[in-house]
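Why run this: before we spend reagent on co-expression, it is cheaper to look at a predicted model of the complex and decide which construct boundaries make sense. The entries below are exactly what would go into the expression plan.
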Amino acid sequence: MATMASNRALPAIAVDPTNKPYFDAAREGRLMIGLCKDTGKHFWYPRGCSPFTLSNNVELVEAKGTGTIYTYSVMRTKEPYAVAYVELDEGVRVFTNIVDCDLDGLKIGQKVRVVFKPTQGESPPATMFTPA
Amino acid sequence: MSINGKAYIVGAFEHPTRKADDKSVAQLHAEVAYGALQDAGLSKDDIDGYFCTSAAPGLGPLNMADYLGLTKLRHVDSTDVGGSSYVLHVGHAAEQIALGRCNVALITLAGRPRAEAMATGTAPRSWGVNVPDDPFEIPYGRTVANVYAMCAMRHMHQYGTTSEQLAWIKVAASHHAQHNPHAMLKKVVTVEEVVNSPMVADPLHRLDCCVISDGGGALIVARPEIARSLSRPKVKIKGAGEATKNQEGGYIDLTYSGARFSGQRAFEEAGVKPSDIQYASIYDSFTITVLMQLEDLGFCEKGQGGRFVSDGNLISGTGKLPFNTDGGGLCNNHPANRGGMTKVIEAVRQLRGEAHPAVQVKDCKLALAHGTGGLLGTRHGSATVVLERE
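The model came back. Tokens follow.
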């Protein structure tokens, strides 16, 4: 039996001065991830410091937008949805939703690609994934 | 410095209510504090150290200290690591007593999520304002249930753990809860009933989840001289450990918990090993929480948790490791959505020989209590204590 992902209303996203560049890029349909320039390692979620060295020698770089499902769970609410950690090809694991598919067919290891979904009002879009 | 033997748990009280329609949160704090003092044989003005969390109403410990009339305080601590806080507070209280900063420490927890009809596990919830991870998680419907469920899903994928194995944890808890007149769920359940209960968040069913209850509990920790002057059986704090675990900059590994670190620290300080433990209180917000902590505390190999919990191995009297003999959070009580307090309380009952006779571990001398607070699948706190009857 199929369980199609619902198109539930998404709440507004709390944009702050530090995360604004990430969400500005999301409005343009680009997925950005953090890069620690001290270590050359990518990080998630984007922030104003490196979680590896704590320095502010960080920047946002564009990710390919593809990855695989590391784990997931389908919320069996009236409007069912799937939360997941997607492991991007760059290596970081992103907390997200898997959308536009039959949620009963999801599998760990499945290939997915990024899609941006509108949220409330003028708020930037949410970063989600769908089977590739 | 070690805290081994420097402090004792001299008072413990679990509020009998599970739904407090007619009581405020502050009043519940007062009732559990009074209950623990009565249990210990001490009075309010003996208290010179006070511990609570942000679940207590007001600014840190200030408003509750005022409400309770605590006027002799020399030390306060409102460290909040979710449901594990109260296990962590036992360790902190022992440290402060060892340092001579206080003599008698009171730890309280109370809340009424049930009376307030809170959607504890199934509605997205932030811990406050300006939380930096919120914009990257809350819009995606992060709930308590689905974050723990993602740990279970990964554990199943990586180690072959099954829903039936997880169900055994609930079955064991229900075997214990049938003897507890205060337990919310007293009916003994079967593996089939657990796996056939409605799915909440794949792969966790309704019966994989703990209860939502009102109430609370309190503990009193005191110096050895004071413990010896009282008439109750003596419960010595032998070791304590704490840890946090987080997303590690995007490289989170969901197959283990902070118990790996807090447990090792507590065992080391106590000078004992997992196989010495006769009774274990293990945080049970969900069945998967128990399974992962048992592995991480060293009761079995990583990945073998499913096999370890099967066939009643956690049931007192038949299994090798009796756990949560009050019925735990899964069946008895999870007051204020924070299970650490009742974990310590049941360990104290076991060591005193005051658990229900049907579940009392024979000649229980060494016990462990462990808590996980926050969200296992994003960022959480871990706290472990090893306790010994003297």
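Chain A touches chain B at residues 8, 10-11, 13-16, 18-19, 23, 33-34, 41-47, 50-52, 70-77, 81, 83-85, 91-97, 108, 119, 126, 128 (CB under 8 Å). Residues 20-27 of chain A form the longest helix (8 residues). Bring this page to Monday's planning discussion.
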